[in-house]
Sequence to fold (504 residues):
Amino acid sequence: MSPALDPRPVAPRPKGEAWLGWASFLLMIGLWGAAALAVNSRFLPAPWTVIAHISWLTNEAHLLPDFAVTLGRAALGFVTAMVLGTLIGIALGRSRLVDRLFLNWVVVGMNLPAIVIAILCFIWLGLNDKALILAVVLNKTPLVITNIRQGVLSFDPAFDELARAYRLSRGQTFRLIHAPQLVPYLLTAARTGLSLVWKIVLVFEVLGSDSGVGFRVSLFFQFFDLKGILAYTLVFVAIVMVLEHVAISPLERRLLKWRTDQT
Amino acid sequence: MAHGPDLSLSIARLTFGGEVLYKDFHLNVAGGEVVALIGPSGVGKTTLLRILAGVETGFDGLALVDGHPAPLAPVPGLVFQDARLLPWLSCADNLRAVRPDVSNEVVAQALAATGLVDVQDKWPRQLSGGMQRRLGLARALLVNPRLMLLDEPFVSLDRVVVRELQALVTDLIVQSGATAVLVSHDPQDAARLAHRVVIIAGRPVQIVADLALDALPAQRSRTQIIAYEDRIETAMVESAL
Fold:
């Protein structure tokens, strides 16, 4: 049985310790504030200055449209890469022939520098959203394929035997036996993939786009506007944290409840 | 009560890892009969059970369940030695996994028949080893099997739990009239449950003893069980196991 499916209980995080996460966050802001007071505010604006600037950027500038564009691109790239990567990963994991034929392609895809893929996409398709999203998908998909392939290869054959003995259909076997074994690998692919997608979308926006967070940050850089860069970064971090705590962690807890439930 | 199916197993040749495991092997089981397959660990007992379950098809030969090739025969009630419960499904859903169409009442009845109460919403890991085996048995019962295939169902359990489960399995088989094949390395399992004991050994595997145990399993006295156990052990020793 693969470690991800080990039925031994996993100790849930004690509820009383949730405040530690918030305390750690406040500590980070405190250290930032102390450092800002100690150095020239031109090089490191204080957190309260940056927060006030976020408000101004939201009301008077382009913060909301910029984030909407970037989030849209990231979401489209992420979902496409997850779907494609999952299907290809399953094909590689289930068929030795397909695996032999295409595994090297995945290895190449994993190791091609992101910037090279982006530049090629921009040259071939022009400086547009299609090229940007394709570059994101090409960068992210091999990572998903690798995770899912590994998940399929670690399927427990004993459960397949159970399915055959009880004459489960292909659909039932996938839903009851294979999909649950893939869940930990899908979650890992989603979590690592999300962080990767954020980063590469921003880099590609700097490189070849006239909209989005990356484009705006590159403008701030040209004007040495540290306050703007930090304001966008802070909003970015807030969105990532909200996604983690509102979407991914609850989903993970729900899907892997069988490992942690103490009732 | 209708009896379970007749079984007819004929293996011309079955190899595993380059070694000939079975060659010209034949076994017939009459409908409603409980046969214990006894033999040393690793001899290939589970392989026979997998063939009868229709899971193992890579061999030259034929396994017939009431005249149908095993993979096409009705679903058997297969009980694995490791319970083989799906850890991500609740106990009730583990049962529904093999019969999605059954009502909550039927699931509750199957659980109650194996002595499990208030476990529907628990996860398998929250059950003791004995309870997990009971759940595996309840799952097998849910398909209303006419053929029960039991692979070392009592191994690694403490003696009290083994006695309880042996009595439970005997009752369930008697009530259903199913044909049953029990794989075990323990003569005591056979002495308590089987009508007939088939001892296998060697390479290729051969039947080295075929013993009929006269008294009905459910009516056996302690003295009879001990006597049968001695008889089986003696046959095993004489067969140089």
Notes: Chain B touches chain A through 22 residues (CB under 8 Å). The CA atoms of residues 34 and 194 of chain B lie 5 Å apart. Strands of chain B lie at 7-16, 19-29, 34-38, 60-65, 68-69, 77-79, 147-151, 179-184, 196-201, 206-212. Residues 159-176 of chain B form the longest helix (18 residues).
